[in-house]
Amino acid sequence: MSSTARCQPSCIGRVRCQPLVGRRRRSFGLVALLFVVFAGVVCGQESGRGPGITVTLKPRQVEVGDRVKAVIELSVPTGVAVGPPLFPTWGETWGEGEILAAGEVESLPSSGPLALYRQVVTLSLFRTGEITLPPVTLEIPTASEVLQITSEIAGPLTVASVLPEGEQEPAPKPPAPPRPLPVGERFWWTLALVAAGCLTAAALLLRQRAVRMAARTVTTVDPLTALRQALTRLQSVDEPVALIAGLSLELRRYLGRRLGFPAAESTTTEIRRRLQERAMPAALAIPIDTLLKHCDAIKFAQRPIALDACATDLA
């Protein structure tokens, strides 16, 4: 029994034995009870803690003009806020820092009793020495009111000068002489394309000019001489219908050269109207109109050929 019990002398001289197993069980139960009580106290403190805000600056030592990131973190107990918190509407500056960018408000994953939010603001500082940023005020909408929580002063930041130590006002350097810039490949490609376009446009203009000059240098033929030559060629035509068609065409060409209008493409009615507009004497206009009508009747209406009448009108 030495391993499971311990014997002690009693007050009457007897030996009393107490089992060790029962005492160990009571010790373990007491420790578990203390752990549960401690965990409950900690959880109660955590759940009872209000919203908190921290501003962290990275890095803390910079030079003039360097970028600094200000990380704003907000912790809100779960169930307190009825909506997302309202972060500041940033302008161009934050204290003595120039705001370069303000990121979106992020909701961070959290498994505890707190909801976490974060925003990163990028700054640039231009004054040397130790610089602090003013507090930031955030708003948390709740079921009854809008809570305002303000952070502590952020900083300090140590901003060092980029000038050599001891040189506060450096003397300006003398102006450098002009330097020739290298001509890149893009310039030559652009020049080649522009030159090709100019040459193409010049070639088109020269072609148009040559066409106009060729049209002006066409030999002018006397209308009456051309008509006589055409009638001489028609004497060798044996087919009567072809003879009449050739006679009508050559007469129209003569009128077109003489009066300056496209008579070969005009109808007999249009030619008669042109003759009236030009005030041609009736002694000439009537026989011309009659001859063209006879020719049209033979070509289109298949009327019998009256060569005598045509010859009379032509004469």
Overall description:
Mean pLDDT is 79; it is low at 1-22 and 36-48. The chain is an alpha+beta fold and 315 residues long. It is elongated and about 125 Å long. Strands 3, 5, 6, 7, 8 and 9 form a six-stranded antiparallel β-sheet that branches. Strands 4-13-10 form a three-stranded mixed β-sheet, with no helix packed on it. The chain has a two-stranded antiparallel ribbon with strand order 1-2. Helix 4 (240-259) packs antiparallel against helix 6 (282-300), helix 5 runs antiparallel to helix 6 and helix 6 (282-300) runs antiparallel to helix 7. It is built from seven helices and 13 strands. A hairpin with a 4-residue loop joins strand 11 (137-141) and strand 12. Helices cover 41% and strands 24% of the residues.
Brief rundown of the structure:
The protein has 315 residues and is α+β, with helices and mostly antiparallel strands. Helices cover 41% and strands 24% of the residues.
